TrEMBL record:
Record bears the keyword Transferase: yes
Protein name per its UniProtKB record: 23S rRNA (Uracil(1939)-C(5))-methyltransferase RlmD
The keyword Repressor belongs to this UniProt entry's keyword annotation: no
Organism per entry: Acetobacterium fimetarium
Record-level GO BP terms: methylation
Protein encoded by which gene: rlmD
Length: 455
């Protein structure tokens, strides 16, 4: 911005053409070469905007009216859109969402990663981009269940969620009645008193439901009445848990879960593999798209049956186990002990005796295994959390000179940062494949194939 002229002023109104959108759903325009973020707008909109804040490099505006609508603008089917913080892009056509997510990946790789002129494959979307989530984490207060509004702890009460299976509406209705009829107290974060903290629903592709009631207590109060009401009010209840969370924090689940009805696990099928799911299990939330994601990994891996695969940040071992039948051996490494136990159980469920899982930090355990056990990987798969990989791990991979690396990312920014490092360490990006696992939101999953090149 020109500091002398100060063309953009707080409180002033401007006409802004929106040219881009962020992952959080804010439209992006320009005024006097300054970026302006405007929530509620889409690329192609021409909007009247009131400037709320002005910083050195950007401004934020409030949408007043839309003079010209984007061709991608649609009426959201969800009545809670704009109130609930779960979705950011439901006012955008699905084709527009896919375009935006592909652009987010490409822009991040160019701007942060310095990977110019890199081809990004067409994003793999869903045929039916709704009712796709297999996991819902409902919050609760005295008025009922719902989700938090964006960037707040203000609860938006809902009757249904179009991202969740249809049985979610039954869970909400039934739990609201249980809390009212049995006079169960609600946990208050400020006073740290009260009983019910939340409800977790997990559903597999068969429609079987696992319901977990999170409580600030030692066990499930009025167990028989709650179990009977849930079985009557919710279809296909496979299991009911109570989760003990007495922590003075906003963490949703405590460490201890007790099954009070039915099976201890529900089983999900991804391709020809089966996976055991408990309340605390790490698992992709979109089972249908996970098959497409994992098939891309399998295609990139191009295994011949002679390779040793290291699956780092492996969680419950889903990716490594998906590849295990095509590999000589799979070594999974994960820092969370419960996830490692689940991975070992899943290996047994699938009768895979060539998959071994270790608990530890990826950057430390990988080095230990290669040195002490003399096992070296032909392929390394990275599936880190949103913060990306530790640079010490990337350096260790380079020192091993592993021929092929596949990076699975849920965050284009940290992906681009890490790919830049990998390029400097002697790896070339061969393929970039975005996959949409979260329709209606700004999140995008990306699979990247890298090969070792001689420097």
């Amino acid at each position: 911005m020109n500091e002398n002229n100060k063309p953009i002023k707080v409180g002033e109104k401007y006409t802004v053409e929106i040219i881009d959108i962020t992952h959080s759903g804010e439209g992006v325009g320009r005024l006097e070469n300054m970026i302006v973020f405007v929530e509620g707008t889409l690329p192609g909109d021409v909007a009247e905007v009131e400037i709320k804040t002005v910083k050195k490099t950007y401004a934020q505006g409030r949408l007043l009216t839309i003079n010209e609508s984007s061709p991608e603008r649609v009426e959201p089917e969800c009545q809670y859109f704009g109130k609930c913080g779960g979705c950011q892009l439901l006012h955008m056509s699905y084709e527009g969402q896919l375009w935006a997510k592909s652009k987010m990946v490409k822009d991040a790789l160019e701007r942060i990663g310095g990977l110019k002129d890199l081809a990004v494959e067409p994003i793999i979307g869903m045929e039916e981009p709704c009712r796709y989530r297999n996991k819902a984490q409902f919050k609760v207060d005295q008025k009922g269940m719902g989700f938090y509004a964006k960037n707040t702890h203000n609860l938006v009460h809902i009757d249904d969620c179009l991202n969740q299976p249809e049985s979610a509406a039954d869970v909400i209705k039934t739990m609201n009645s249980i809390i009212k009829d049995l006079n169960l107290s609600i946990y208050d974060e400020k006073t740290q008193k009260g009983y019910v903290r939340g409800v977790l629903q997990r559903t597999n592709l068969e429609g079987e439901n696992m319901i977990t009631i999170v409580v600030n207590g030692k066990d499930l109060s009025q167990r028989d009445a709650i179990v009977e009401a849930l079985r009557k009010g919710v279809p296909n209840v496979k299991s009911i848990y109570v989760n003990i969370n007495r922590e003075k924090s906003n963490v949703i689940l405590g460490k201890k879960s007790i099954c009070v009805y039915g099976a201890a696990r529900i089983v999900e099928k991804i391709g020809d593999r089966i996976f055991s799911i408990s309340p605390n299990s790490f698992f992709q939330v979109n089972s249908k798209q996970t098959v497409k994601l994992y098939d891309q990994i399998k295609e990139m891996a191009a295994l011949k049956g002679t390779e040793t695969v290291f699956d780092l940040y492996c969680g419950t071992g889903t990716i490594g186990l998906y590849l295990a039948k095509e590999a000589k051996a799979v070594i999974g490494i994960e820092s969370v002990n419960d996830a490692v136990l689940d991975a070992r159980e899943n290996a047994g469920l699938n009768q895979l005796d060539n998959a071994t899982f270790y608990q530890g930090r990826a950057e430390e355990e990988m080095v230990r295994i290669t040195k002490e056990e003399k096992i070296k990987p032909d392929l390394i798969i990275l599936d880190p959390p949103r913060k990306g990989c530790e640079e010490t791990l990337l350096n260790a991979i380079s020192e091993l000179k592993t021929a092929t690396v596949i990076y699975v990312s849920c965050n284009p920014s940290t992906l681009a940062r890490d790919l830049k490092i990998m390029k400097e360490l002697g790896y070339a990006v061969k393929k970039v494949q975005p996959v949409d696992l979260f329709p209606g939101t700004g999140h995008v999953e990306t699979v990247v194939l890298m090969s070792r090149v001689e420097k």
